[in-house]
Design goal:
- By secondary structure, the protein is mostly beta strands.
- It is built from one helix and 15 strands.
- Strands 1, 2, 3, 11, 13 and 14 form a six-stranded antiparallel β-sheet that branches.
- The chain is elongated and about 70 Å long.
Length: about 300
């Protein structure tokens, strides 16, 4: 009996906690300037219901939140569209979940679209930005397990068709030259929503190229000498999607801001938050959607 008693006294008990699923998407990249590439989507990481993460990765493991511990949620903005040809579109900003007892979940902002004349290649990021039409090499690279690369320009002086930004589920130009890469769908909020699409590249063909599904911005359409058919648009807010590329001395659209979503058992939900997340329920779970930075105390 004494041996058993000593063993019990020496036992280490795990602190009380509960599993929490997450979807974390960083801000998308801005589109480039002048016949320019679309911005890449922000990095995409997901643990819910065996759903896919970005870049072709599988679902991640859920987090264990320890009761009484505070977890910080950081929401990154989308990158600005380039305003001149000396810089590509701005990279989007990081989104994350951090805490003293977990390995932080961090996503990389989307790469900016390539610009003319100096920064023709798209920037690297969660997903990469597309190239300016002049650059037929590889677009900006994506981050492993978060997103895909941007697309190349077509090099043609008759169409001036730039590369599409990469999305969470495919590279830029996958569906056609200049198209943004598609995003990914998740049902973490209780219904299927697609986010993190790449922005499409600018063109002079007279027809806008499709942005990636999930909120990507559309590239500018311009026909020389002064026929503006449509302006570049920005990625949808809180989807982490890339902005559309700009054309003929005009800048691209901004990337969409990021988002963090937590899903946990309603029976465990503490109700202690900051940053005013949207609180909803689905079945026996409570869902917190953060569109601005804040915290959750388990």
């Amino acid at each position: 009996m004494s041996g058993i008693h000593l063993n019990l006294l020496g036992s280490t008990f795990a602190p009380a906690g509960y599993n929490t699923d997450f979807l974390v998407i960083a801000g998308g990249g801005g589109g480039g300037h002048d016949d320019a590439g679309g911005g890449g989507s922000g990095g995409y990481r997901n643990s819910y219901n065996s759903e896919t993460s970005g870049g072709g990765a599988g679902s991640e493991s859920s987090l264990k939140f320890i009761i009484g511990t505070s977890y910080t949620i950081t929401i990154g903005s989308g990158g600005a569209g380039a305003t001149n040809g000396s810089a590509r579109g701005t990279q989007g900003n990081t989104c994350s979940i951090s805490g003293s007892d977990i390995t932080d979940i961090t996503t990389v902002g989307g790469g900016g679209g390539g610009s003319r004349p100096s920064e023709t290649q798209g920037g690297s990021g969660g997903s990469g930005g597309g190239n300016n039409y002049l650059n037929t090499g590889s677009g900006g690279s994506g981050t492993s397990n978060q997103g895909f690369a941007g697309g190349a320009g077509n090099g043609s002086t008759s169409t001036f068709l730039a590369g599409g930004g990469g999305g969470a589920s495919e590279a830029g130009n996958t569906d056609s030259q200049g198209f943004g890469g598609d995003g990914l769908a998740s049902s973490i909020t209780g219904s299927s929503v697609t986010r993190a699409g790449g922005g499409s590249g600018a063109t002079r063909t007279g027809t806008a190229k499709d942005a990636g599904t999930g909120g990507g911005g559309v590239g500018r359409v311009y026909s020389f000498p002064a026929n503006i058919i449509s302006e570049a648009t920005s990625g949808t807010v809180n989807t982490g999607s890339g902005g559309g590329g700009g054309s003929h001395v005009n800048g691209g659209g901004a990337g969409g801001s990021g988002v963090v979503i937590l899903r946990m058992p309603t029976a465990s939900y503490s109700g202690t938050t900051s940053g005013s997340p949207t609180v909803t329920t689905s079945g026996s779970d409570t869902i917190l959607t953060y569109t601005g930075s804040g915290s959750y105390t388990a």
